[in-house]
């Protein structure tokens, strides 16, 4: 009997030693909130929906819903300046007209206390992506993508965020923009975790969105919690808009878990802060 107890004690000691050598199980990376938000450019002709009358509502929404990272589209320099007055955020991104300040931005904002930018850049959605330019059958506008590599100060994990705005007129431009975007994501980010977000001006059945879904995961489809809010993301400043067309997306590489997905249809006094609803995720790097 004594020898059996001794053997059991030795086995228990070995198990404890193996467990100690293996160390504690790694804790999951802390989650954070990331969004895409088309701001609607600053146009006086928007009347009661012009930017000066809704800028505070946009900032209040961002703060109330505790965005940690968010990519923007359509922001003109004065709009980017206004958002920069939220001192808790830093941002990257240039203007699409001159590669400096002029024109709409696809800027990316991130919470300074949580994230550090390790690198950033911009490219145009065209046959000449290194210089301000229109691409393919886009008629009126240069189209731009901006990117940043972030380090999470809490987990030390690194990941990339791309913010894009596809053309609203050129069908060929939208298709080719998806090809170029995916090529650039691979070229810039390699095998690192990636979140690619923006206004794609395309509904899910289009060739360009199906191409994106084949290469990256559509957050709407892979959220662990059921998607919250309306399906559609473009409201045209109409409080009774049907909200069935999804044109704003977040696409993710493997290694990122989508805990929650929501389209935020907040309004004040019957008015939306923008003509697009922001799309907000809670994610975790695996």
Largest sheet: 6 strands, mixed
Count of individual domains: 1
CATH topology: Deoxyribonuclease I, Chain A
Give the end-to-end Cα distance, rounded to a whole number of Å. Answer: 48 Å
Cα shape: globular
What are the secondary-structure elements, in order, as H or E?
HEHEHEEEEEHEHEHEEE
Structural class given helices, strands, pairing?
A: alpha+beta
Radius of gyration: 22 Å
Poorly predicted runs are 3-23
Question: Could you explain the architecture of this structure?
Answer:
- By secondary structure, the chain is α+β, with helices and mostly antiparallel strands.
- It has one domain (about 30-285): Endonuclease/exonuclease/phosphatase (Deoxyribonuclease I, Chain A), CATH 3.60.10.10.
- It is about 25% helix and about 25% strand.
- The protein contains 6 helices and 12 strands.
- The protein has helices at about 1-20, 55-65, 75-85, 170-190, 205-215, 220, and strands spanning about 30-40, 70-75, 90, 110, 115-125, 145-150, 160-165, 195-200, 215-220, 250, 255-265, 280-285.
- The strands form 2 sheets. Strands 3-4-2-1-12-11 form a 6-stranded mixed β-sheet.
- Helix 4 runs parallel beside helix 5 (about 205-215).
- It is globular and about 50 Å long.
């Amino acid at each position: 009997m004594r020898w059996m107890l001794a053997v059991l004690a030795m086995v228990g000691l070995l198990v404890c030693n193996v467990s100690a050598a293996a160390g504690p199980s790694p804790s999951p990376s802390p989650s954070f909130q990331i969004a895409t938000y088309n701001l609607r450019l600053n146009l006086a002709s928007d009347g009661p929906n012009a930017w000066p009358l809704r800028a505070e509502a946009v900032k209040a929404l961002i703060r109330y819903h505790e965005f940690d990272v968010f990519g923007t589209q359509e922001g003109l320099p004065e709009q980017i300046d206004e958002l920069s007055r939220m001192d808790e955020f830093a941002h990257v991104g240039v203007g699409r007209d001159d590669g400096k300040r002029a024109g709409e931005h696809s800027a990316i904002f991130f919470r300074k206390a949580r994230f550090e930018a390790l690198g950033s850049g911009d490219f145009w959605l065209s046959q000449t992506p290194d210089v301000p330019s229109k691409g393919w059958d886009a008629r009126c506008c240069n189209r731009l993508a901006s990117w940043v590599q972030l380090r999470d100060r809490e987990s030390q994990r690194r990941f990339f965020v791309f913010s894009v705005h596809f053309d609203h007129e050129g069908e060929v431009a939208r298709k080719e923009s998806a090809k170029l975007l995916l090529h650039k994501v691979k070229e810039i980010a390699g095998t690192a975790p990636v979140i690619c977000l923006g206004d794609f001006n395309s509904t899910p059945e289009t060739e360009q969105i199906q191409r994106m879904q084949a290469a990256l995961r559509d957050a709407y489809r892979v959220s662990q919690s059921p998607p919250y809010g309306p399906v559609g993301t473009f409201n045209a400043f109409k409080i009774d808009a049907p909200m069935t067309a999804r044109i704003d997306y977040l696409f993710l590489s493997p290694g990122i878990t989508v805990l929650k997905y929501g389209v935020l249809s907040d309004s004040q006094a019957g008015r939306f802060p923008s003509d697009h609803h922001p799309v907000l995720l809670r994610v975790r790097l695996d």
